[in-house]
Amino acid sequence: MDAIRKQASKLREQVAKQQQ
């Protein structure tokens, strides 16, 4: 589903921000 993919990308973005 597109919604799941959107949520996954959002989570990944948050993790990337935390790692930086």
Number of helices: 1
Q: What's the helix-strand series? A: H
Biggest beta sheet attributes: none
Report how far apart the termini are: 29 Å
Q: What is the mean pLDDT?
A: 95
Output the radius of gyration. 9 Å
Low-confidence stretches: none
Report the sheet-strand fraction.
under 5%
- Helical percent range? over 70%
How would the global form be characterised? Answer: rod-shaped
Helix/strand/pairing category: mainly alpha
Number of strands: 0
Biased composition (Basic and acidic residues): 10-20
Region (Disordered): 1-20
Task: Detail the topology: elements first, then pairings.
Layout: H1 2-19
Index terms:
single chain, 20 residues, mainly alpha, 1 helix
Describe this structure in words.
The chain is mainly α and 20 residues long. It is 90% helix and 0% strand. The protein has one helix and no strands.
Summarize this structure briefly:
With 20 residues, the protein is mostly helical.
